[in-house]
Design goal:
The chain has 134 residues and is an alpha+beta fold. 37% of the residues lie in helices and 22% in strands. The chain has a 4-stranded antiparallel β-sheet. The termini are far apart.
């Protein structure tokens, strides 16, 4: 069974402002990595076993060191495999932060680091179509 504890959330409290990963205590680095590992395992298990009707799901988990810095939160999500980027899709997410655990059914942000303008426009169109159907 995959679990998360109050102690997991407390590690985020020690870094209210994101700092360089090198400034994070080694023990806290291990906690961040452990949270990420459990979230990754959970999302992969959900994607492998859950079926949303006839929609196959894929899993995504945030990094424990976004841009080489301490995270403000660590999340995982599952979203339809037919969508190439979770930021442009409906998703079910679990977020661990100093506030606790939050589970949500949401739309992606609609932004990402996709560099190719044609790819980005195609993904934006998919998200627009999803919003129109919701």
């Amino acid at each position: 069974m995959i679990t998360f504890t109050r102690e997991d959330c407390q590690v985020f409290v020690r870094y209210p402002e994101s700092v360089s990963w090198q400034q994070v205590r080694k023990g806290d680095q291990e906690i961040f990595k452990s949270i990420r590992g459990r979230l990754k395992q959970l999302s992969e298990e959900v994607a492998a076993t859950a079926k949303a009707g006839s929609v196959d799901l894929q899993a995504k988990t945030s990094l424990p060191t976004p841009n080489g810095r301490s995270p403000r939160e660590i999340w995982c999500c599952v979203y339809p495999i037919s969508v190439l980027n979770k930021s442009y899709s409906l998703q079910v997410a679990l977020i661990i932060s100093e506030r606790g655990a939050e589970i949500c059914f949401c739309l992606g942000s609609g932004t990402s680091q996709v560099a190719n303008p044609e790819d980005r426009r195609r993904l934006e169109t998919i998200l627009e179509n999803t919003r129109d159907k919701a």
